[in-house]
Amino acid sequence: MQATIRDLNGDDAGSIDLPEVFETAYRPDLIKRAVIAAQANRKQPYGADPYAGLRTPAESMGSGRGMSHDPRQNGVARRVPHAVSGRRAHPPKAEKDQGKEINTKERKLAVRSALAATTDPELVAERGHRFDDDVELPLVVSDDFEDLVKTQEVVDLLQSLGVYDDIERSEENKKVKSGQGKLRGRKYTRPKSILFVTADEPSKAARNLAGVDVATAANVSAEDLAPGTHAGRLTLFTESALEEVAER
Predict the structure, then answer these.
(1) Could you tell me if 131 and 165 are in contact, meaning their C-beta atoms sit under 8 angstroms apart?
(2) How many CB atoms are located within 10 Å of the residue 137 CB?
(3) What pTM does this model have?
(4) Which UniProt keywords apply (predicted)?
């Protein structure tokens, strides 16, 4: 299997043989497990105050009064789980390990499978990505891309490659989140668009575009390649990154 290398003008600059990793079988089950494990292992421990709901002098009045044995303060039940201001019956524990394990071989196979999925136009379109009908996947550009410093230069390249519509899709579908996250510095959510994979340092010129992620070939993960556990992300590789990906 071969891929066409494009220069910064979007013109044909030769071809390259794709590494064997791009022939890996599609394993959505492993990809899902790898992504969920990565998300679970980032969770911050949280739990209730051990004394929550117990800071009260309430005492039970005992039996023989024709009422329940609930501890009472000023005649009102306290402390017990079914009372207002009472403790939780089974609150979250901060010491609980919320992480998930996955075998190393399975995790590596998940990454290889997710990489192979980037070459399937049907899977990429199924994720909702927009690109011209004549676009060849995977997208491969010359190493000159890593020298770009202006975002407008990246925009011009994406337009010449016929994939800039995917950036606009992400901008158009920006939405306000539901829940408390709005108050905590993460008010908006938007679809993921293009993933840029470079050989050395991640491209700073591209990372400010809507929905874009940047990663190095050595560190690209299953979660980068399959956001939300759904493989087939529209991905752009540099020529050197493609060679490094072969070792994954």
Answers:
(1) yes
(2) 21
(3) 0.88
(4) Ribonucleoprotein, Ribosomal protein
